[in-house]
UniProtKB/TrEMBL annotation:
Residues 1-21 form the signal peptide. Transmembrane segments: none annotated. Keywords: Signal. Residues 26-68 are annotated as: Disordered. It comes from Pseudonocardia adelaidensis. Residues 56-68 have a biased composition (Polar residues). This is Lipoprotein. Residues 41-53 have a biased composition (Low complexity).
Length: 197
């Protein structure tokens, strides 16, 4: 009986020693490709203060991060790459002219922008937020909803008796719509900028 108690006590001491030597939350190494923030918690090199920022490798945001952006943030990123793009309006459920913002299977954020290379005098629709003056961004909960919206717009435009065509691109949960007033090479700049988000 005494021998069994000694064995049990020895086993408990061994388990305690191993548990105490295991790394704690502040001692854990960063995840692969990450760094440690000044507060000691794991982080990534993108967008956070790092323990040694001068030696930390620069990385691009993780793929899929665009899914966490609002339409306004997507436009800001596009404008950082295309200096002629200017944010013009950020819609709310009350100001969305389509009254679709926040409805099931449709966009959860929407914003529009202008492009200074487009002459408003040549546009047929000069209302604030008109895609013809630059473009718009619609962000959805998932890619399937974004693609369904693109298909609906494409089919609607094809059925109209007048030319109101536009460029449109889906990347993940984001639908980018561009003015037909932009020549193909300028539309391609936006497509490249969208790919780089």
């Amino acid at each position: 009986m005494v021998m069994a108690l000694r064995c049990l006590l020895g086993l408990l001491l061994l388990i305690t020693a191993v548990a105490c030597s295991a790394p704690g939350a502040g001692d854990q190494p960063p995840a692969a490709g990450g760094t440690v923030r000044h507060d000691g918690t794991p982080g990534t090199t993108a967008g956070h203060a790092t323990a040694h920022p001068e030696s930390a490798p620069q990385t691009t945001p993780p793929q899929g991060s665009v899914s966490e952006m609002t339409a306004e943030q997507v436009i800001a990123r596009l404008a950082a790459r295309i200096p002629t793009a200017r944010s013009s309006i950020v819609y709310s459920a009350q100001t969305d002219p389509n009254q679709l913002l926040g409805t099931p299977n449709l966009y959860v954020s929407k914003a529009a922008f202008t492009d200074t290379r487009i002459d408003p005098a040549q546009a047929k629709d000069t209302e604030i937020g008109s895609v013809e003056l630059g473009g718009s961004v619609e962000v959805f909960l998932d890619e399937a909803d974004a693609r369904a919206r693109k298909q609906y717009i494409d089919e609607t435009i094809a059925d109209l008796p007048i030319d109101v065509s536009e460029y449109s691109y889906v990347r993940g949960q984001v639908l980018l719509r561009l003015s037909r007033r932009l020549p193909p090479e300028q539309a391609a700049e936006y497509e490249s900028a969208l790919d780089a988000l």
